[in-house]
Amino acid sequence: MSQFSIRQYLIIICVALFIVGGIYLKFREYFLPTAIVKIAGQEIKVELAKTPKSQTKGLSGRKKLADNEGMLFLFPFVEKRSFWMKDMNFSIDIIWINNGEIVDIAPNLPPAIEANPPVYYSRLPINTVLEVNAGFSAKNGLKIGDKMEMLTK
Asked: How far does the signal peptide extend, from start to end residue (predicted)?
């Protein structure tokens, strides 16, 4: 059995790093950063959708959300936004937020059953959207003007 040279070890290490890096790049979109937000006295663990790719995917394909979990969409500027329910498997509430204040609530939106899902629009310009399980807004008495606070980033 021959001994490996330093060059052979370096080649093996480089190949291993290349493979690990490729795996990371492929799957990093599935591991979004998380934070805790507080809204109407409730703390919610949210995944942060900050990139166009993560915002387009949103909760599509997910089987469910746990109680007090959601997805927070953070946009770099304020404007009217649109969301759809493509490939959704459960109903949600969409909470439209501008600078930490609820400006509108779209409750109990069902998953789309047709090929062209409906599109939901913010009535006012916003820079943040919170998606939570359907019924969360009513259960917790959310209303326009309530504040959302980011507890951790």
From this structure: none
Which residue range forms the structural domain that includes residue 123?
Answer: 32-150
The residue among 130 and 151 whose pLDDT is bigger is 130
pTM, full prediction: 0.79
Residues 82 and 146 placed together within one structural domain of the fold = yes
Give me 121's structure tokens.
């629009």
Nearest-angstrom CA–CA distance, 21 and 135: 41
The structural domain count of the chain equals 2
Neighbours of 121 (CB within 10 A): 11
112 and 122 belong to one structural domain:
yes
pLDDT, tens digit, for every residue of 103-144?
Answer: 999 999 998 887 788 889 999 999 999 999 999 999 999 999
* Helix, strand, coil fractions of the chain, as percent rounded to 5: 25, 40, 40
Bridge-based pairing state of the strands 69-79 and 101-109:
unpaired
Inter-CA distances, 110 with 67, 79, 83, 88, Å: 17, 25, 13, 8
Among 149, 132, 139, residue whose Cα is nearest residue 58: 132
Helix/strand/coil for 75:
strand
